User: Fold these one by one.
Assistant:
Number 1:
Amino acid sequence: MAQYFEVHPQTPQQRLIRRAAEIVSQGGLIVYPTDSSYAFGCQLDCKDALERIRRIRQLGEDHNFTLICRDLSQVSAFAKINNEAFRLIKTLTPGPYTFLLQATREVPRRLQHPKRKTIGIRLPDNAVSQLLAAELDEPLFSSTLILPGETEGLSDPEDIRDLVGSRVELILAAGVIPFAETTIVDLTGEFPVVVRQGKGSAGFLRA
């Protein structure tokens, strides 16, 4: 059964964040909060944890995965980003947005979209995920906690413990987080394109 850490949503206990980072670095699979939902998280290059996420969520090979980054300088190491995209991401983050960008060689191929060679990038407006990414000093590989057959993610950490507690090493519980989809912005073309309107406002971009 997973360890269960209750963390303060605004001022997370640093010792718990440090322990969570250690579990991730040792190949563990965790559940952690973002600004739009709870999500699975694991080390960037941990093949075993990635496959566990695929099995739990029953995901196909063409699923778009996401990297939770510490800051924009970290984004540029893992995604190809031009000046226009840099300015847009800087304006919209931290916030409930996922940006699709061309992956660099630093991103393992199994994490990229198999045809487009893209990766999703996020900088959530959430203290727990921000501190966790900073403690890891590398992006956190992430996938929204949506179980097979469901259209929304689990919002109550007690429910999460009951349903997936036996399949992960740690749950970082920061209270109930109402599920909301992120707004997905494709930055791989000449112009930014909104491919999914979610929680983040994007009325000024073309859809």
Number 2:
Amino acid sequence: MEFAYRFRLNPTPAQRDRLAWTLDTCRQVYNHFLHRMNRNDDISSSFSEQNRLPDLKQWWTDLQQVNSKVLQKVVDRLYTARSNLKKKKDKGHDVGKLKWKGNGYYHSFEYNQSGFELKKTSGRDRLYLNKIGNVPVVAHRELPDDATMKGVVVKRETTGRWYASLQLETNESAPPKPDEPENVVGIDVGILKYAHDTDGHAVGSVDLSAEEERLEHEQRVLSRKEHGSNNHREQQQKVARRYADIKRKRRDFLHKLSTWYAKTYDLVAVEKLDAKGLLELPSNSHNRASAAWATFRKLLKWKCEREGTHFVAVEPAGTTKECARCGVSTDKPLWVREHSCPACGFEADRDENAAWNVLQRGLDKLNIGTGSAESTPAETVVPTATAFQLVAANHVAETGSPTLKREPSGER
């Protein structure tokens, strides 16, 4: 199994300068080989270009101060990017060309195979990087005993902070997915309620209002600084830190929620939303972007693979309109939050009805449980709206499970 741990680096001032110099040198090497690529169409792979690096070091002597594997990965990254563009073009996408990397637009470099080691001595962790030294690192979690480090990616964020992503590999494999999953769930995502599933769990969106207010303040201060001045650059870093706060809080929420679903259920079905298309709609695009539905689906997918859980993404069209019990489609404006079927009389929360449709489409797509009364919401397992009343659910507890409150309808 392959995975990565991301640790914060705390380099000394001298090491910080060395890291920045190495990063800028890698940027120049990238631009050098990009220039060669654009002038020589007959270059088909990165292997021949990597063989030019020893001769290149003879006249570009600064390259001798950079680990050879790091330089090889710079060239490999360039040709991997070209290959990815070609694949998109072959699929009919309108793609451009690889761009020259200006100062500040190259953010990471990579070690592989050798030149790195995580040292844990006397409670002070250090990451050895060849040609740079032993850099203090905040290794906030222990590496698995059988894990092997295959590589390290060193990255400078826009905040100016340095991070290292350790690429690890273990002999363990993901547990097998059950042939007949019993504990299944469908999830409908939204904005007011971030997730509403078929078990009645409703999780509200994470509250980022305080972080967004601080961001707006720092942006107003930035607008009054003289562009290009030292004060302007310092304020840019403050704005970047506010963005990082929002990103960190949002990803923490998404990680906890996706982990809980992946570990709790045997099968998880979600909507395959077109996030890019939704952002192009004329209103509410800010809240749609903040929801990060595509990120949630991506995290949930690989965590389900890790836990041995079935994951299926289904088309969302019609999940809100269709009745989960009889399949009759009924138009409902956004302000109508309850589903009431005129054909069969089934009543439920609007999002819960959509979640049941998502689950049924997921089961049909995987050809699992079709025709079974235990997995067919139309017959037995779809609860009615009078079964319970959701009172409050707006966060994820520190334990990683959604905070839920139910109240029986008879007590209201």
Number 3:
Amino acid sequence: MGKRLIRLFTFFILAFSFITSEVYALSFTKPKVVEKIEVDEEILNEKKEYIKSSKITDFYSNWRGTRYRYGGTTKKGVDCSALMQHLYKEQFDVELPRTTLTQVKIGEQVIGNRENWKVGDLIFFKMNSRIKHVGVYIGNNKFVHAGRSTGVTISEYDSYWAKRYWQTRRVI
């Protein structure tokens, strides 16, 4: 009876240790539950707009006051389409075509009124039947461009520009 009791006791100890080791092992291999993080799309979009706005503002501070020169591509003198080329390449790593007439063909046209414009959209104007102009929207009814009389500047989208408005394109 002593041997039988020892075997039974040994059996229970082994069984108990096997069960607890399995439970212990399972506690380490069990995958952890990760809570689903919901992203507020509106906050994310505001952050993207802020980043774009900051990049354009930084670019503008380096080019502000540069005189306008038709066909110019440097800080010694720049035209509107070359300014947009520099902005998009330097700040967004996007290559734009050289002229306003080729830039107006890229991206996606923004349909509707100004409320649909976003920071970074290209705004195109027809100054007359043969002269076209481009700037970049920075929000709050303002845009950066290289004006013939002002050089690189920020302008208000007012009645002067509204009369000449052609279209808006979204590239970024």
